Amino acid sequence: MNNNFTGKHVFITGGSSGIGLSLASHLSAGGAHVTIMARREDQLATAIKEISGLRINDKQRFLAVRGDVAEMQSVMKILAVYEKEHGTPDILINSAGISYPGEFQNLSPEILRDLMNINYLGTAFVTRAFINGMILRGSGHIVNISSMAGFIGTFGYSGYGASKYAVRGFSEVLRAELKPLGIQVSIVYPPDTQTPQLDFEKDLKPAITQELAENAGVMTADAVAAEILKGIQAKKYTILPGFNSWFYYKLTALLGDLTFKVMDGEIRSAMKRISKKVK
């Protein structure tokens, strides 16, 4: 990585594991000051040790903030104190998120609520905490992590997909409102990525979802992080890590509703493969 991030103040939610941790590690190696936020204190401590070990100079600062992005009152208070002590970040990366696959009729209302609270509202709350500081300064970059399930309806991801579509809508409005004020917004649509979250999903995926995933391939968190940082450097609004993300994003834009026929065909093929396995 070049030194475009040297001296930049970067705040990452969900920074103790997965894509967030990989981003923090890359940014540390790029000379940035990095703050990570997550719920578990033990994971934060381990992550900070790993991240700080990649620093390239002694001036870099590394901080851990414990908090739940979905708890509005708590997170707003925590981040108000943080901003007063450390200033407004140059770059905010909203990477905190959870996934819980399952056919809609099998998902509890509590799961649907949690997915929306963490993935969408958590993104909105943290952004809201820092946005006035960015507006006052006249600069900043907000990066929201969505998913391929945030632009194409994916079998088995009704709750998760809805929350990630919400992130998409939120990001598009933010872009419109903040660009005239000198603030950059980006949205990221990662494909399946090898993270603890993906491991958690394995036993929860419906058979069709699992079959579709097996044909899609998986990226490493480091590879996704590298693509995200390239997109940030290039000031892209839409960041599409990996071929699958790029291909299906372009496909949906090109085909419109005809995309449903493509997806229906893939589901039928998956069902046939499952049927053959059972026999």
What is the rounded Rg? 19 Å
- Shape descriptor: globular
Q: Work out the count of structural domains.
A: 1
Strand content: 5-15%
Number of DSSP E strands: 9
Read across the widest sheet, the strand sequence of neighbours is 3-2-1-4-5-6-9
Please state the average pLDDT score: 94
Question: Regarding quaternary structure, how should these chains be classified?
Answer: single chain
Q: Biggest sheet, in brief?
A: 7 strands, parallel
Low-confidence stretches: none
What does this structure look like?
The structure is a single chain. By secondary structure, this protein is α/β, with parallel strands linked by helices. It has a single domain (3-242, 255-278), classed as Rossmann fold, CATH 3.40.50.720. Helix content is 54%, strand content 14%. The protein has a seven-stranded parallel beta sheet with strand order 3-2-1-4-5-6-9, sandwiched between helices. Helix 3 packs parallel to helix 4 (109-137). The protein is globular, with a radius of gyration of 19 Å. The N and C termini lie far apart (51 Å).
Which key phrases capture this entry?
279 residues, alpha/beta, single chain, Rossmann fold, two-stranded parallel sheet, 9 strands, seven-stranded parallel sheet
List the helices and strands and how they pair.
Elements: E1 9-13, H1 18-29, E2 33-38, H2 41-52, E3 62-66, H3 72-86, E4 91-94, H4 109-137, E5 140-145, H5 158-178, E6 183-188, E7 193-194, H6 196-201, H7 207-216, E8 219-220, H8 221-233, E9 238-239, H9 242-255, H10 259-278
